[in-house]
Amino acid sequence: MSYYPLWEVLMRPQGSPAELERRRVRAIELLQRDIPVHVVAERLGVDRRSVRRWKRAHRGQGPAGLRARPASGRPPKLTATQRQQLARIVVAGPEAAGYATSLWTCRRIVDVIRHQFKVVYHPDHVGRLLRASGFRPQRPQPVAKERDDRRVREWIHQDWARVKKTRPPRRPPNLPR
Known about the structure:
Elements: H1 6-10, H2 17-32, H3 37-44, H4 48-61, H5 80-92, H6 106-117, H7 123-132, H8 149-158, H9 160-163
């Protein structure tokens, strides 16, 4: 008898709904060839109880019992169209949305969502919403106000080679110390 850690038993299986459905159909195909349940489970890397459950579902409902079902959960607050509109607003920049600086923050996006779509989001959840839309968090690089890029480039071209320390030439490996 095989034992699984509790987290493996309670964990959702890996893969897309279509992949999981293909695995269930494959299990039924193997069972119809008179392959024992424990062998099917071992081949597919699943628990025997899952294979038995799929067998019962197939016996009771046919192929419909193996179909992938949409994941349950709370429906999204923004529709797909609204998420596309939000993405266009984010790409246009904060200045186009009426802010003085060119930096998006989660709180600013919460305000935009509230004003544009009349939907309330918590700032901590906006990051997830943006990542789902293909955006990634970016941090502005601090730059000194006194920095003069032209003078930095000149220094690199003129003085860097002079002050840069070079490594001593490598000795041949057969040379004694």
